[in-house]
TrEMBL record:
Residues 42-396 form the Glycoside hydrolase family domain. It catalyses: Random hydrolysis of (1->4)-beta-D-mannosidic linkages in mannans, galactomannans and glucomannans. This is mannan endo-1,4-beta-mannosidase. Gene3D superfamilies: Glycosidases (3.20.20.80). GO terms for biological process: polysaccharide catabolic process. Residues 1-24 form the signal peptide. Transmembrane segments: none annotated. The keyword Signal applies.
Length: 468
């Protein structure tokens, strides 16, 4: 989705927030030796994720999106919101946060210009002022987010730039190249300009090799991070059938691996089908091309798992609820089938959401909650039978009082009791599933076989008796 920029929210008691943030920072530093996330680096094992060092224990993801974490964490007055978000998420068993590890140019840049990084976004320095008035440049951005995720046992899926204009993205990179005197025709030159590709690679390298000032762990070595997403929702008008994005992913995924061989990588696709083999363009919203191939691009070397997004109401704007539900079912089924048949890789629904604006037909809470259940049930059903659809992340988690970031999709867990219960229950089910190790599954299967056999014997015996 294209997202609005956050604006500075109303201030809360500055000193209180400052103390809370300082306390959180101390807490974050104190368990730097934990292995992060859910207990170790995550790898893939066929169409499932598995925790390395966890004896290959499978892990399923009950996740959320919160693109704003780094930016809010870089603002002293609002850092408590980041802590609150992770705490609420952990309380509901959520184990994955998808968020931005980019802010290209603009008012609050992570990367102000190619290769120029605003330390305020990255670094957490010690607070030395006697006035207790926190300065923006001594507060953490991304480092704080990673440390907090680690502290709360939540994995991070970090996204490295945007297809859309929000927080820079494709357009900003192309503009930087133009400012440097290069002639680029459109924003889609992002995907094939050598200059822009070098800017992007430099950003990748800077973030991945960054050593977290709070935990002392390099990002590329931090098990809190599940993996890297090359771009949020790549699309390409210049080459609608998918060749430009294909070539770009084929170059960038191995590049990420060359710097960080330990983490997983994915492209960041929404799941739109292109013109390659095994693509089902007719299933695309409105049956048109968006510049990506779901199957072909996820087959690229260096891409470890596949992703789809799911927004039936905006994608099929104006269509009936029934048609949207049919789309939802077809979209998840079709991609799960492809992941199983053609990719043999896990699949995550890295964004899904249903518009909730009171008073708008088809957008009430009952329908939103129904949508949540449908998506979560399909994930659970797949995961439970060993299918490739093994997790998701709803769009988007906010804490209360963040009204400027509301976009109609927000879920504020403490204020949205039913949604919170649905999500919490789903997290628990998935966690239970991952406790069923290979051995447990075999034991369970053996128990089922024994029950069947004995049922069979009983049936025979009973028949026998009746024959006597
Ligand atoms: C990049 O692709 C665009 C659109 O296909 C094309 O116009 C342009 O010439 C290409 N640039 C390079 C450097 O290949
Ligand atoms: C869903 O799939 C069914 C059967 O394959 C097809 O008839 C129907 O048109 C599809 N619906 C949508 C909304 O794509
Ligand atoms: C929500 O919308 C549906 C369909 O428009 C309607 O049947 C239902 O009564 C509405 N529920 C509430 C609580 O407004
Ligand atoms: C959540 O799980 C509890 C315990 O299994 C169950 O009683 C409750 O009905 C579930 N709630 C929802 C909303 O699914």
């Amino acid at each position: 989705m294209a997202k609005a920029k956050p604006r500075p929210a109303a201030a809360i008691l500055l000193l209180l927030i400052f103390l809370a943030a300082a306390a959180a920072a101390v807490g974050a530093g104190s368990d730097a030796e934990t292995t992060g996330g859910g207990g170790g680096m995550v790898g893939v094992d066929g169409t499932r994720f598995a925790v390395a060092g966890g004896g290959g224990r499978p892990i399923y993801f009950s996740g959320f999106n919160a693109y704003w974490l780094m930016l809010v964490a870089s603002d002293p007055a609002r850092r408590g919101k980041v802590v609150a978000a992770f705490r609420q998420a952990a309380d509901h068993g959520l184990n994955l946060a998808r968020t931005w590890a980019f802010s290209d140019g603009g008012d609050t840049p992570l990367q102000a210009a190619p290769g120029v990084y605003d330390e305020a976004m990255f670094q957490v320095a010690t607070v030395t002022t006697v006035t207790c008035k926190p300065k923006r440049d001594v507060l953490a951005g991304l480092d704080f987010v990673v440390a907090e995720a680690r502290r709360h046992g939540i994995y991070l899926l970090l996204c490295l730039t945007n297809n859309f204009h929000d927080f820079g993205g494709k357009r900003q990179y192309v503009q930087w190249a133009r400012d440097a005197g290069h002639r680029l025709a459109t924003d889609d030159d992002f995907f094939n300009s050598t200059v822009v590709k070098d800017y992007y690679k430099n950003h990748v390298k800077t973030v991945l090799t960054r050593v977290n000032t709070l935990t002392g762990v390099a990002y590329k070595d931090d098990a809190t991070i599940l993996g890297w997403e090359l771009m949020n929702e790549p699309r390409c008008d210049a080459e609608p059938t998918g060749a430009l994005v294909q070539a770009w992913v084929e170059e960038m995924a191995p590049y990420v691996k060359s710097i960080d061989g330990g983490h997983l990588v994915t492209a960041g696709l929404e799941g739109f089908y292109g013109a390659g083999a095994h693509e089902s363009k007719d299933l695309n919203p409105w049956g048109i091309y968006y510049g990506t191939n779901f199957v072909e691009t996820h087959r690229a070397r260096g891409v470890d798992f596949a992703t789809i997004h799911l927004y039936p109401d905006v994608w099929l704007w104006g269509s009936a609820a029934d048609a949207q539900l049919a789309f939802l079912r077809n979209w998840t089924r079709s991609h799960a089938r492809d992941a199983d048949l053609y990719l043999r890789k896990p699949l995550l629904v890295t964004e899904y959401g249903k518009f909730l604006w009171e008073g708008v037909a088809g957008a009430n809470r009952t329908q939103r909650d129904y949508f949540l259940r449908l998506v979560l049930d399909s994930i659970y059903a797949s995961a439970a039978r060993g299918g490739p659809l093994v997790g998701g992340a709803f769009w988007q988690l906010l804490d209360g009082g963040m009204d400027t970031l509301r976009d109609g999709y927000e879920i504020i867990l403490p204020e949205d009791r039913l949604a919170a219960t649905i999500i919490g229950n789903h997290s628990r089910q998935l966690a239970q599933l991952s406790l069923n190790t290979g051995e447990d599954v075999e034991k369970e299967a053996a128990a089922i076989r024994r029950r069947r056999k004995s049922a069979h014997r009983n049936t025979r015996t009973q028949r026998g008796w009746s024959q006597w």
